[in-house]
Amino acid sequence: MIRIEDVVKLVGRQLGLKKVKSDDRLRENLGAESMDIQNIVLALEDKYQIAIEEEEIVDLVAVSDLFNLVQAKV
Amino acid sequence: MIVSSQTTSTLRELIVQRGEVTPQQVAFHFGDERFSYGQILSRAKSLAAALAEIGVGQGDRVVLILPNGPDFFYAFYACMLLGAVAVPVFPETAPERNFKIAGLCQASCMIIPPDRSDRDAFTSMGQVQNLPVLFSDAAAQAPLALPRLDRDDLAFLQFTSGSTGDPKGVMLTHANLITNVKQLIAGMSISKDDVFVSWLPVYHDMGLILMTLVPFYLGAKLVLLPTSLASVAAWLKKIQEHQGSFTAAPDFAYRLCLRYIKKLAHLDITSLRVALNAAEPVRASTIRNFEKAFSLENVVIAGYGLAEATVGVCTWYPGKPLREDARGLVSVGPAFSDVELEIVDESGDTMEAGRVGRIAIRSKAATRGYYNNPTATAKLFLDNGFFDSGDLGYLDEEGHLFISGRRKNVIISAGRTIANQEVEETIDALPCVKLSMATGIDKGHSEGEQVYLFAEIRRGASMDEEALEDICREIVCATHEKLGFRPGRVYLVRSGTIPRTYNGKLQHLKLKRDYLCGQLREQGRILFPNY
Question: Does A13 contact B477 at a Cβ distance shorter than 8 Å?
């Protein structure tokens, strides 16, 4: 069972931010750079034991996109 | 009158000649604006006068904390006019690190952009440390007296992380720079008809020397972009728009283009003659896939260089197919003219072709050492006038160099070299951390190595999840604030997990092995997080 709170928490942990919301945009609202997004994806892969393709990273905009991506794979 | 760059022996002559003889000529494009040589010279003169007013003179060090853009050039060439020594530094770190470098080179002044959000922190720290902080729009009208300048005078200091994390200032003279500029031009058959497109940082060697000094020297067109690669599309679009023929970037930037290939494939960048791939390990797959994706042939070439050789040491031949060995290493080509390469063993003896050893270099463009650091300088040079690059590799029978690794304890992440020790010092300074270790882990993704941080937390710290979460965030924030990047992963580990030798030296490779084989997790050494 994937919970959006856990994905939100993981994003906050990676970016060093306490208040992250699921509709926050990774780059615009949270200041993530492309390296940070890569790091978040790698952390999600390890946490949920999934594989995310490079092409799938391109379409990630908001925190909720990460959640949807993970949910579709587990 | 034609500017004859052949006679240029200092960077001051370069900018004065260009600025006086062809003042209208565009030096570079930035955003939608164009900046002429005349403009650079005139702004550099008034900034130089302002520097002179506060007592900055020949040989004095001036720290430049300026991002890509016109202000960097005004400040850099103001130093050249005065015969002062420019010290360009990475602008996105906290003031403390910049002041540390200013201290190491006993700087006389620091220049920052007037619109920097933390400008007050700089000014007040400057007052405490008695170091004048000038804004890059400072200007004075007093006539400028140009002191005599010799080609062997210092032009700038390139600070590098080095292996210990204590930044070291590589001393580069005007002669070093002009020599290396000529070597780069000859090595890659660059001409004034080439069109340069660059987003590389102008405050770092490859971005400054290869991508701005070379086009200025030749009078070639330069299209400069901000360093932010938030969109690699901007880079490729500029190449298409300006019919760019020469660009350079680390391997990860080319990989990043491949990631976004669906959105970029329509761009036509076939005007490129050379796309140099250097500053981090070069992957054959990157070159092949990038060329295939953009219908290029023998355009992306591997290169190798380091600040101690000014910047460029060798590159593969433009227009020739890449050479890959049985291990999958890509050759970075033969040495430039007036550069000698030798592979030596641990005792400094020359090794035969094909054998891997330390890469030693002798070059007319080689530095004379590190500023104010005789110990590090003595370590750099071998007995025969060669210096030790700190990298490992071999030469094939034809003298082509292959890089196989590095001996220095550094992490190369997204094209940036990060000293493990500097990260560790930043984290160890946090009150909740007892001891930390930083290591680079490459999982084969497009960004290259990720910085992994392992931190033992102090006894007595609360072990509940919220508290551990807070410590993780604190570590990420400290790294971001002080060093300008966020770590790939932070692990809080039990006391005694970080391995050390009997004399206390951290064993990075051991921890990395134990982590990668799953042993740390199995033995319950990782407290947080649980993946």
Answer: no
Q: CB distance from B484 to chain A under 8 Å?
A: no
**CB-based burial, B394-429: b 16+ in 10 Å, e otherwise:** bbeeeebbbbeebeebbbbbbbbbbbbbbbbebbee
Return the SS3 of B181.
helix
The whole-angstrom separation of Cα B82 and Cα B71 is 17
Q: Which residues in chain A have Cβ-Cβ distances shorter than 8 Å to B447?
A: 34-35, 38
Residues 17-46 of A with CB under 8 A from B: 17-18, 27, 33-36, 38-39, 42-43, 46
The tokens describing B197, both together, are 């497109």
The average pLDDT across B39-53 equals: 97
Q: What does the DSSP assignment read for B442-474?
A: --S-TTB-EEEEEEEEPTT---SHHHHHHHHHH
Q: Which of A11, A15, A36, A38 to mutate to test the interface with B (most CBs of B within 10 A)?
A: A38
pLDDT tens per residue, range B250-295: 988 898 898 888 889 999 999 999 999 998 889 899 999 999 999 9
What confidence tens digit (pLDDT) does each residue in A6-23 have?
Answer: 999 999 999 999 999 999
B339 touches A at CB < 8 Å: no
Q: Per-residue pLDDT for B5 more than 90?
A: no
B399 contact partners, CB below 8 Å, separation of at least 6: B334, B335, B341
Q: Which two tokens stand for residue B410?
A: 């550094």
Predicted confidence (pLDDT) per residue in B158-207, tens digit: 998 655 557 899 999 999 999 999 999 999 999 999 999 999 999 999 99
Q: Is B508 left (phi over 0), alpha (psi -120 to 50) or beta?
A: alpha
Peptide bond into B529 cis (omega under 30): yes
Nearest-angstrom CA–CA distance, B305 and B313: 5
Do B480 and A57 make contact, defined as CB atoms within 8 angstroms? no
Cα–Cα distance, B242 to B223 (Å, whole number) = 8
The owner of tokens 């220095």 is B408
* Residue found under tokens 């699921």: A22
B301 contact partners, CB below 8 Å, separation of at least 6: B188, B274, B275, B276, B277, B315, B316, B317, B318, B322, B333
From chain A, pick out residues whose CB is under 8 angstroms from the CB of B414: 34-35
Is the CB of A38 less than 8 angstroms away from the CB of B477? no
pLDDT (0 to 100) of residue B1: 42
Ranges assigned E (strand) in B179-243? 195-198, 221-224
| 8 Å CB contact of B488 and A39 | yes
Reading the block at residue B31, the tokens are 């955003």
Determine how β-strand B300-305 pairs with β-strand B274-277: parallel
Nearest to B394 by CA among B326, B448, B444: B326
For residue B154, the surrounding DSSP H or E stretch is strand B154-160
Statement: residue B124 has pLDDT above 80: yes
Q: B473 vs A57: CB contact, 8 Å cut-off?
A: no
- What is the distance in angstroms between the Cα of B66 and the nearest Cα belonging to chain A? 20
The angle formed by the CA atoms of residues A30, A3 and A58, to the nearest 5 degrees, is 45
